[in-house]
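[DERIVE STRUCTURE TOKENS]
===
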Amino acid sequence: MTIAATKTAEHEPSHWEVVLRAWEELDLPEGWRAEIIEGDITITLLSEVAESMSIAEAEELGIPSHWEVVLRAWEELDLPEGWRAEIIEGDIKIMTPPSLEHGHIVTLIHKWLVLECHREGSGIGGAEVYQNVGVRVPLRSGLYIPDLMVLPESVLSSAPEQLIRDAILVVEVTSKSTAQKDRKPKLWGYAHAEVPLYLLVDRWDPDSAKGEVTLFSAPEDGRYTRSVRAPFGEGIELPSPFDLMIDTGAFPV
């Protein structure tokens, strides 16, 4: 390693260092504690407090709910540039900056979606494409930051919990550190929020061990009832109101 590379490496904290510093800087209400479990920050109410009173009694005493405590902790995180954090099933998951390959796929899909939003006669005319916007899914104790999300123009005044319910499409591109979360907890979360279309670009599909794209649709009772899958190199169509073919031929693994 060169001297320059060594200096660069010295200024790039590891995932453990970032998580540990975030844990050390937590300022939790009295009676709550936080642990680091398999790299995620888990916040719980001390057992002696939880066992000594009912939910009604806790509310009467002004003790915040688990969701309120975790959400506030997430809001107060101070992470290095490029890092981000989500709440997955009640735990805070801190993620490393995405790779160039990940960013390339997101950029391609973003470009195609923006062109479709502005195409004359488009079924999503007036909609906007957003990157890295936090959306809340309290039913799944989740706060997700999808890689891409298409929202109608009228949602800018929506309440935080309503934003995800207004989404027309969400897109997630897996990284090695986030793949399991994108495949299961987020899949369930988006279905519970009744997002009509969820496009999962999985660079390491566990079934094929190759790049796969899956479009989930028709959410019902907290699950998607339909899915269409295509390997990298083949197109996958976004149905109405998009009527847009996503060309995966340029997606790097």
